[in-house]
Write a structure and sequence with these properties.
single chain; about 450 residues; Rossmann fold; TIM Barrel; 2 domains; 6-stranded parallel beta sheet; 16 helices; about 15% strand; globular
Length: about 450
């Protein structure tokens, strides 16, 4: 009997500073794409998984094929990993968001590239490699059904991830935000997994995951369908968090069903407190609410805590807007807040606009050795890139100061659920410590001594 075919899946980290061993803890959640690929792999293939964020990759371990899912921030590190394997004669396949956004670039560092979703092409790709006739490009013919997309979590055994169970209920987003890579890849569409498959996954992990994170980009994109989902979820008696657009507050029945099904927190992209900036983002869904204040009152009434996110670097931003946004976040007692700089991801409408206007500071910032995490890769109109960077870090430090954490921790909504209240201080302290860790973080290993190996 011949030996089984061996597949190694690798999840790349963003990078590491020279000599660094520990990684940013808040970046260490389960990587669902790797588990979905493992589930799609034929049963007679031997699958190994290595997470670059928490372990050294054993390049000398025998394997027949390596699969890497690439995001834009991890692209440089992914190419370093691919080069190490390919230098040893092991073929590499790459997929993921960045592969769909920049297939020609990714193809320089891999034997094959998967463009789009893997559900309808992965098994065929494995067969092609086993028979010695692989193709350079595998392109998903259309958006696939997600019936077979329940992740194989066995690959996570022995890894020290954050104690949050990740589940994908739907994939994609129907909105058209200028800066969003998600809607660019999925062309403003969203597909959902079968309800029974989601519930089965909830039941399989709820005893060991005290908090479940539905990773959907917008859990309420289709309100009627979302209501049916929340009604079916309620008997499971779980605590869960997800992401949603602020227009959820226009439908109080939707919010009530969400809360009754166990929702404890939502990540909401407010993006900006300046309506003109929101309009420039093409995020009209944020304008669908009468006011942020009224929308937040609805969510507070149902004891749903908020992780508010904002982006800075749009054309009307001023130094005063940073202080105003900080005051808004503290006054509403947000559980967490993300104060982020605007990032032009390749392929997005934002990237194309800034490129046409000659405002990009790097042609490919994700590959440039002089670029690092938190820097602005473009020139805003009203502020210097360095000032936007500095002020983003400053408002993070002020929001996650010990005094701010204590004050927000006493907010009635943050205290409403004992489990969430107990974890409020732990999670906020993690974010407080991460501010310095992640600032100007390198993309790729800063002390990697190898050379990127390009395909012939």
């Amino acid at each position: 009997m011949s030996d089984p075919y061996r597949l190694t899946l690798v999840h790349p980290c963003i990078g590491r500073r020279a000599g660094q061993r520990d990684y940013v803890r808040t970046w260490q959640m389960e990587p669902l794409p790797a588990a979905v690929i493992a589930a799609l792999t034929p049963a007679d293939v031997e699958v190994r998984f290595h997470d670059d964020r928490m372990e050294q990759i054993p390049y000398e371990e025998p394997t027949d094929l390596v699969g890497i899912s690439v995001e834009t921030y991890t692209a440089r590190r992914a190419y370093q990993i691919a080069s190490e394997y390919r230098r040893r004669g092991v073929p590499v396949v790459m997929g993921g968001f960045h592969a769909s956004l920049c297939p020609e670039e990714v193809a320089r560092y891999a034997e094959s590239v998967v463009v789009g979703e893997a559900e309808d092409v992965w098994a065929g790709l494995i067969d092609d490699y086993r028979s010695g006739r692989p193709r350079r490009l595998y392109r998903a013919p259309a958006r696939p059904s997600l019936e077979r997309s329940t992740p194989d979590r066995r690959i996570f055994q022995g890894k020290r991830y954050l104690p949050v169970g990740l589940i994908e209920a739907g994939r994609g987003c129907p909105f058209q935000c200028e800066f969003c890579a998600v809607q660019t890849v999925f062309q403003r569409t969203q597909t959902c997994r079968p309800l029974e498959a989601i519930l089965a996954e909830v039941r399989a992990i709820k005893d060991r995951s005290r908090l479940i994170f539905f990773v959907d980009d917008n859990i309420i994109s289709h309100p009627g369908q979302a209501k049916d989902f929340f009604r079916a979820l309620a008997p499971e008696r779980i605590r869960w968090v997800s992401q949603a657009s602020i227009n959820v507050a226009r439908d109080e029945e939707l919010v009530r069903l969400m809360a009754a099904s166990g929702c404890k927190a939502l990540l909401v992209g407010f993006e900006s407190l300046d309506p003109a900036n929101v309009a420039a983002m093409d995020k009209g869904i944020n304008s669908a609410v009468a006011s942020y204040e009224d929308a937040l009152a609805v969510l507070r009434r149902h004891r749903i805590t908020l992780y508010g996110t904002f982006v800075f670097g749009y054309d009307r931003d001023t130094p005063a807007l940073f202080d105003r946004t900080l005051e808004f976040s503290q006054r509403h007692g947000f559980f967490l807040t993300g104060f982020n700089h605007l990032t032009p991801f390749p392929g997005t409408a934002l990237y194309r606009r800034l490129e046409a206007e000659g405002r990009l500071l790097y042609k490919e910032w994700w590959l440039d050795e002089t670029y690092s995490y938190n820097k602005l890769p473009f020139r805003p109109l009203g502020m210097d890139p360095e000032e936007v960077h500095r002020r983003c870090v400053d408002v993070r430090r002020r929001f996650y100061s010990l005094a701010s954490i204590l004050r927000r921790g006493l907010d009635p909504v943050n205290r409403a659920d004992p489990f969430m209240f107990r974890n409020f201080f732990l999670i906020n302290n993690l974010h407080r410590m991460d501010i310095g860790q992640r600032d100007c973080y390198p993309l790729g290993l800063a002390d990697w001594g190898g050379k990127l190996l390009e395909a012939a």
